[in-house]
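Friendly challenge for the regulars: who can give me the structure tokens for this chain first? No prize, just bragging rights.
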Amino acid sequence: MTGQPQTPPNQPGDAADRPAERSTSFTATPADRARTYQTGRDQNIHEHHHYAPAALPTAPAPTRGTLKSGVTWSLAAVVILALGAVVGVDLWQRHTAQDTGPAGETAAPPVTASASSDRPRSPSPSPTPPASKAKPNPPAPAPAPSPSQSGPPPNPAGENCGRWNTTKVPRTEVRACGRVEDDRFYMIAEWRTTSGSALVDVYLWLKDSTGKSVIYPEQGSPTGIGFHAMAAWPTPQDKPQWKEWEVRRDLVHGASYEVCVSVTERNGAGPSIYNPTVSGFQYRLIYP
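First reply, four minutes later:
Bragging rights claimed.
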């Protein structure tokens, strides 16, 4: 195989400034087995080789202005990263302080002494306590009940009464009472029912200490002082269930007297007070 070199490639600096083509021709015989594409007969082979330029062009050296601009941008990037790190740390510390601190409370700033702390300060007004901790106002007193709300007036005799006695009127009881006020002697009768209600007639009179002689009233009232159609309930409703009467005659100071009381059904027959055997229910009281 014979070689026939062709024209050499372009040298650097040519106008085209690119690699030139170089061609080489070979004549191959069957005995030439060095090439893998050899066949069984003579062939004329032309090979074309491409060569790169002797030296690759290099980038121009950076100028001074370009270096300065790059340094400036690098410094700016470093500053931005540093500021971002500071802000991130501050936000993290704030978030951590809020998570670890008690709810609704903030840490008080530290107190530092200064030269102005020696000067006297005017006392600050005491803070107003929050509404939730303020003492509640005491409840207003309830208004005094009116007479209609408090019920009828009680028996003025108080404890100067005898025991409750069962009468001939079904479910009705009565007791005799008395009191003395400003040298005035009062006979009192009080009544009630054990259940339900009733209308009754009530009678009062006064006897001496022996219980035989009638002191008051005089002979003109054979049944005594009568109160008719009196309502009776277990407890008083809208009217008092007691009556009193002043003894209008002179009495002996220090002497004992018997207050007598009797109850009948409405429009029933009254007691015969001058009958020695009729005494009703009595309560003894001393005229002071």
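The domain at 154-286 is CATH 2.60.40 (Immunoglobulin-like). The longest strand covers residues 198-208. Your move, everyone else.
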